[in-house]
UniProtKB/TrEMBL annotation:
Signal peptide: none annotated. GO terms for molecular function: amino acid binding; aspartate carbamoyltransferase activity. The keyword Transferase applies. The gene is pyrB. It comes from Candidatus Marsarchaeota G2 archaeon OSP_D. This is Aspartate carbamoyltransferase.
Amino acid sequence: MAHGAEESGWKNRDVIDILGFTKNELLDLFEETDKFVEQGSDFGEPLRHKIVATAFFEPSTRTRLSFSSAALRLGAKVIDLSAEVSSLMKGESFADTIRMLEAYSDLIVVRHPSEGAALFASEISSKPVVNGGDGSQHHPTQAMLDVYTVNKLKGGVDGLTYALVGDIKYARTATSFLYALTKFNPRRVYAVCPEALRPRAEVLKRLEGLGLRVELGLELEDIIGELDVVYATRIQKERFPDQSEYEKVKGSYRLARTVMEKAKRECIILHPLPRVEELPYELDSTPHAAYFKQAAWGVPLRMALLKLILGG
Ligand code: CP
């Protein structure tokens, strides 16, 4: 705990949104993550008496499996609620389902399509609840991972120029990343997207209140040369209230190789994944591609988080 945060502040803590964490707490988390990255294997099973529950009411590969992998690597057991074969199908409420997970486990990771679902679960459960994504709102552990990746690959988060590219309106990863940047001092932050996918007015207002100005209305080609980090997101088809609105922006942007060729060699591309057409496979072999490293670090970062919350 080198940055001043008390370790006890993590114990049994809910993780609902990234704004609830201080910069020092994030740096402490990164330091703990680094230890697991360096250690590589044989972690001594510090959580061998713990049970982690994963309850995902929306599809997931990375968040669900990296939490499971992190728990198992620390010696914890994992139970998984598969919504489609659970008593939810018989009409059981979300609240009662959380009460059962509270009784059966020591920590609940929940993903839900409704904004506020994780907060609601945390109000019901006496056991810590980790938000694995709620609607278009928050994805705090992804934001922790994204900032960790920047910190690790760029040697810091401050003083860099960032462009978020794609769906900044519905992608909770993009919103959470912007919220995370309010804890640091970026040089400039751009949102490059069609007008229909700009950050929501209430999000921009909140960011502004927290001292982060997001510059809108520019083309990637015009700013690519000054960027240190490109954060790309998929257009979140499933979140559009009106599919005809999705059709209007579908395929409206793509991180073209010809554009990335004009970037600084050290400019990194992050993407929370999954990707569809916005991030061409041909970029995978360029020095800019950092997204698979980013996804892989999801395990040590979530190990550090579980250990801080459940360990001690
Ligand atoms: N980044 C992310 O949340 O991926 P999954 O939807 O696969 O969990």
